[in-house]
Amino acid sequence: MVNRFFTLPFRLWCLFFMACLCCGCHQSQDEAEGTKEEHEYDLLLRKGKWSDIVEKDREQPAQSPACRNAVRLAAWHLGMASREELIWCLADSRGVLGSETAALMMSDIYMQLGMVNMSQRAAFDAMVAMRSDKPCSRVLKRLTEVAIITQNYPLALKYIRIGEKHRDCKKWARELRPLAEHPEKVGQFSNFIKLREIYENNQDEFFL
């Protein structure tokens, strides 16, 4: 008598089930990394292509909350919206850190507005969402920048030492080490000074 659990139909069903399970896991991993739209907007955001971001949204309205915030940031850079309007829109944080790429985008957006604590929080969220044990150069650099802006130089040096052990991080680690070792040099970089002034004179208390 043939055991029914080893019949060909049952074995085929098992193979089909495992295939569906694998596809589902792959899809969930892709979603955790970010959508195609988020990758496209993230690239434009990192390059500062503000006009291209606005035009892309006009052609096809952005769906991801993080992408919509990138459009708002672009409008602000182009003088189409005030900083107050942008910050008011950012207060609605539902689903904004829904993926690794979305969290990285929001970290950039918050940093450009001088919302240093929020930028750090988003960077940590991106790090948690990542599947690789290898430190992300973009996240590690952002955490180092935050430490320098908030004048936590020992922490900045800790991040830099980690970065120096990885090829992708060595360039920015070499550039930021002098600022962490000699804080007086930070004054030579207008961007750091501007972000520090915003950080010290504004509340940064959005809850995600």
Task: Give an overview in words.
There is one protein chain. With about 210 residues, this protein is an all-alpha fold. It is about 70% helix and about 0% strand. It has 11 helices and no strands. Helix 4 (about 65-75) runs parallel beside helix 6, helix 7 packs antiparallel against helix 8 and helix 8 runs antiparallel to helix 9 (about 155-165). It is globular and about 45 Å long. The model is unreliable at about 1-5 and about 10-25 (pLDDT under 50).
Concise description?
The protein is built from eleven helices and no strands. It has 208 residues and is mainly α. The longest helix has 26 residues, at 8-33.
Q: In terms of topology, how is this protein built?
A:
Layout: H1 8-33, H2 36-47, H3 50-59, H4 65-77, H5 83-90, H6 100-112, H7 116-129, H8 137-149, H9 153-163, H10 170-181, H11 190-201
Helix pairs in contact: 2-4, 2-6, 3-4, 4-5, 4-6, 6-7, 7-8, 8-9, 8-10, 9-10
Summarize this structure as a short list of keywords or feature phrases.
208 residues; 11 helices; single chain; mainly alpha
Structural class, from helix and strand content?
mainly alpha
Overall pLDDT: 84
- In total, the number of strands is 0
Order of helices and strands: HHHHHHHHHHH
**How much of the sequence is in beta strands?**
under 5%
